[in-house]
Amino acid sequence: MKNRTFRDAMGKFATGVTIVTTKVNDQTHGMTANAFMSVSLDPQLITISIDNNAKMLDYIKESGKFAVSILKDEQKEVSMHFAGQKDNPDVVSFDEVYGIPIIQDSLASVICEVDKSVEAGDHTLFIGEVLELKLTDGSPLAFFSGKYGSYQVV
Questions:
Q1: Where is the Flavin reductase like domain (predicted)?
Q2: Is position 149 within any domain?
């Protein structure tokens, strides 16, 4: 099976869009990701998947903490900035919780301490213990088959 076919098949799973952030030496680092899921309610755990070649991998290992901000439908430009599709830092505003940057006005932000990491193929899974949550109202930014969209209730 070709990597492109596998990637296309995985793209058929509609997801939300998140920004994973951390802070190292007073520098904020972030990346767009959709490989995110909840793992456990007790204790509260989530997982993110980071490419082993991504700079973010070392930043999270060094800081030991990260946040996942779930984007609203009007935050597409924020996603594109952190995905390297558009260089537009003016669209990004941060708040901080426990010294970890989160995307301001996102639908939800999940602030975590790394519980453990597991190498899996060409990615590393970080399991984060939830320290804090921040929620707002709005509609989610969606991603399907390589394209942004919005979620419609039916």
A1: 10-150
A2: no
The partner residues of 71 in beta bridges, in order of sequence, read none
pLDDT in tens, 115-147: 999 999 999 999 999 999 999 999 999 999 989
How far apart, in whole angstroms, are the C-alpha atoms of residue 143 and residue 132?
A: 26
> Domain for residue 95, yes or no?
yes
Number of structural domains (the chain) is: 1
Q: Which residue has the tokens 């939300």?
A: 16
Half-sphere exposure of 141 (CA within 13 A, CB side): 25
Decide if 69 is inside a domain.
yes
Residue 41: exposure state from Cβ atoms within 10 A (0-12, 13-18, ≥19): exposed
Residue with tokens 């903490």: 65
Tokens of 146: 């390589």
Q: What is the CATH number of the domain that holds 15?
A: 2.30.110.10
Query: Which pTM value belongs to this model?
Result: 0.94
How many residues can be counted in the chain?
Answer: 154
